[in-house]
Write a sequence for this structure.
């Protein structure tokens, strides 16, 4: 077990330990400073301030140790302060911190593009552009698809999350908190019904037929540049589409000259036990978007796609000052190397094999757990009123608050606010997972 942990010798032990009230006095003091100078639109899920972290443990400024089941929303997939990431990024900092690829290119950018070409699905020639954030990558994928197709329409699915910039907030499903009051929204974005087996009960074929009818009748294929879909929806509540849904949707896209884009910002980079969740569905997207987990916490993202599509924009049409920064690129190379060297894909499957049965057992005990779903280290439970599909966001909030009080960082999700999602680092030990599940069990018992 220890060989999957980073070789960086951290003073932080991999255990949960709460020694003050939550929040502790130093967090309370920082909260006061924060309120004076940080815009209140920036909200935080937990009342504690983080100071250090390693592996699957976050230590707050009061010395409390939390089991991290969120990994910064699936970013530190190979663990906090991974040795290889620290080493690669530190070395790069001293050699070349910034150059701007569009002025003087450097090797690490090229290497990241090679690794993406190798590890994304599809046996065709691929090219990439590197950016800073998930939203920026989504924006660039849309630009490229529009340039390639000479069409403007962008279709997304209900419950989707694609970011907070002007174009991507229009693509995101949920009005509150992402869009309300921030309009006007970007035009030519269409929200199609997707596949949500727990709530719609549709087969993949029937859900795809419903989506395709919407695309054909409400938008018209000839005006549609791209369909953008998360193979497993993230913020929407880890919704796994019914079997056959995604492939049927892509086949329709291919037949109609529409670029099929997989937004794998959350589901990609080893999260589900494969490099990309698309692989679980036999899906080979024309373009795939990578961000969150790619660089162990450093900001970098990518659009990777069929070479002929990626080459559609004119020279100089793509770029950005910090895009593909050398330090972040070095960290991304280290993450790819470590996933291979330590066989971390298998760790996602290990986590699923522990979490799924444990959560099914909790669902028997607590019937407000209406659904247990997800793949690999991307697992969720959906809470409802007993005996119905009526969402139960109050129970989600109470369980998450109890968990925080007892040293477990638990993230919520879902359009209806009634999903708890588990996306721990792949290096979390069996013991920490069992300990966290015990806390969650107590949390449900306390309701
Ligand atoms: C987080 C996320 C984004 C946005 O990424 P940022 O880096 O926050 O801009 C886009 N798509 C999906 C699926 C995400 O989970």
């Amino acid at each position: 077990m220890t060989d999957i942990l980073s070789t960086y010798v951290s003073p932080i032990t991999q255990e949960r330990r709460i020694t003050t009230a939550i929040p502790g006095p130093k967090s309370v003091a920082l909260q006061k400073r924060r309120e004076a100078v940080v815009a209140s639109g920036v909200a935080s899920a937990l009342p504690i301030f983080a100071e250090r972290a390693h592996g699957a443990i976050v230590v707050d400024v009061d010395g409390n140790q939390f089991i991290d089941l969120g990994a910064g929303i699936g970013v530190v997939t190979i663990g906090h302060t991974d040795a290889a990431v620290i080493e690669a990024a530190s070395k790069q900092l001293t050699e070349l911190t910034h150059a701007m690829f569009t002025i003087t290119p450097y090797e690490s950018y090229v290497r990241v593009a090679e690794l993406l070409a190798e590890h994304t699905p599809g046996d065709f020639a691929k090219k990439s552009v590197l950016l800073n954030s998930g939203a920026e990558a989504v924006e660039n994928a849309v630009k490229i698809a529009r340039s390639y197709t000479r069409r403007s329409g962008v279709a997304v699915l209900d419950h989707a999350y694609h970011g907070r910039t002007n174009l991507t907030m229009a693509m995101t499903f949920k009005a509150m908190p992402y869009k309300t009051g921030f309009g006007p929204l970007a035009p030519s974005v269409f929200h199609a019904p997707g596949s949500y087996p727990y709530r719609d009960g549709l087969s993949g074929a029937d859900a795809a037929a419903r989506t395709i009818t919407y695309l054909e009748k409400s938008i018209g294929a000839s005006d549609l540049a791209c369909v953008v879909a998360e193979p497993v929806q993230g913020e929407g509540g880890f919704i796994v589409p019914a079997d056959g849904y995604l492939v049927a949707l892509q086949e329709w896209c291919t037949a109609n000259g529409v670029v099929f884009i997989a937004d794998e910002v959350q589901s990609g980079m080893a999260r589900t036990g494969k490099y990309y969740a698309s692989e679980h569905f036999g899906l080979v997207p024309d373009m795939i978007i990578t961000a969150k987990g790619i660089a162990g916490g450093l900001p970098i993202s990518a659009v990777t796609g069929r070479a002929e599509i990626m080459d559609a924009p004119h020279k100089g049409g793509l770029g950005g000052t910090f895009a593909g920064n050398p330090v972040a690129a070095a960290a991304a190379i280290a993450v790819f190397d470590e996933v291979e060297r330590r066989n971390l894909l298998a760790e996602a499957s290990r986590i699923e094999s522990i979490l799924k049965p444990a959560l099914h057992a909790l669902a028997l005990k607590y019937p407000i757990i209406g659904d247990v779903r997800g793949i690999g280290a991307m697992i969720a439970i959906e809470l409802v009123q007993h005996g119905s599909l009526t969402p139960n966001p109050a129970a989600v909030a109470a369980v998450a608050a109890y968990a925080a009080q007892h040293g477990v960082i638990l993230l919520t999700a879902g359009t209806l606010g009634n999903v708890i999602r588990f996306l721990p680092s792949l290096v979390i030990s069996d013991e920490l997972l069992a300990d966290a599940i015990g806390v969650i069990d107590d949390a449900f018992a306390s309701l």
